[in-house]
Amino acid sequence: MKPLNGLWTSPLIEHARSIQHSFCYQPVKRKKMKKKWIVIPSLLVLIVIGIMVMPILQHFWEQSRPRPKVVVDGPMRAKAIDTLVAKLNDHYIFPDKAKQVAAVLRQRQQEGKYDGITDGEQLTQQLTADIQGVAPDRHMEVGFAPGLVLPDDNGAQPPETREDWEQRTNFVMRQIMRHMAKRQVEEVNHLSPNIGYLKLAGFPPDFLVAEKFGAAMDELADTDGLIVDLRHNGGGAPESVALLVSYFVDQRTRLNDIWDRATGETKQYWTADKLDGKRYGCKKPVLILVGPGTMSAGEDFAYTMQALKRATVIGEPTWGGANPARPHRIGEHFYAVIPGRRTISAITHTNWEGTGVTPDIAAKPDNALAVATDLLQRRVRGGAPLVAVGR
């Protein structure tokens, strides 16, 4: 949990400093009375911010501070395994496979394979390996996090709209989340006057990243070709994938369907009719860089653009996780991430689970940008096909 502390508290500090600077900055030659009237409001603002931020900082301090060592005993192991079996049977998208996993876990439990494991990390690693041996779903894992308290399964689902999100979060948290979402658009640049470069670390909720996507695409609209770098993309929301794909098509297009086991319903994902920024259109070449660090929603974007024949994918095969998952509490210190939804491409009628996205042009991830830049430069200069010469 330590990374959370750095990710969340640094924006708070930066935000407070920026407010302090905006209120306090004045030319040096001012009368003392005016300085007082400048400093006093600044201090009041910082005090108010401190009061609002303190509960959040306290929460993340509690999450990030060193935890006492938890010794896993027999009852704790039994409860975690029993609950894990129940959650798999209740939520996993393939019920028959869940039963097979449960049978294996029960057999190994009876054989005493888990007896004597008193370390939580070791236990969850063994359980994950046993599950993956039967159901090699990349999103599925068992985790150990002392002190972590997850909501009950019947709790509120993540917000899907800006209005719902605003009602359920306070002002400070909204500013933090907006800041973090914008940081997922890591770089927007021109590699040359006619070649654009867009680097994405993730796909935050569409209502948080739509404005940033729009600004990025406005900046890149005048280029003759574009490289989208997803080599270190950790994934995110399918709605944001559909939003970004929308910039590269000229008409409304159906992309993916996601079936939800809990409801039995299938949700269709279409491109957006209205966008914040300029459309890039369906004519100019787009190259997508991928590798083993391209995960989940990052794979979704590459897979969908490739299936639409709208982009050329360069690099190495991606991670291979297509089924959306959520965490479930299975004990006081244990959780299980279980895929409860299944992505089905409206174009290929399957997905990239287990296989990843296979690049059109193979290249080592460290060399993929150079390969893409060379190919794109030759393409925009003379219309040469996007084929790696001599590779």
TrEMBL record:
Keywords per UniProt: Membrane, Transmembrane, Transmembrane helix
TM stretches of this protein: 37-61
Annotated Tail specific protease domain residues: 169-364
Superkingdom of origin organism: Bacteria
Membrane recorded as keyword: yes
SMART domains (UniProt xref): TSPc
Keyword Methyltransferase in record: no
Full protein name: Tail specific protease domain-containing protein
Species name: Pseudoduganella flava
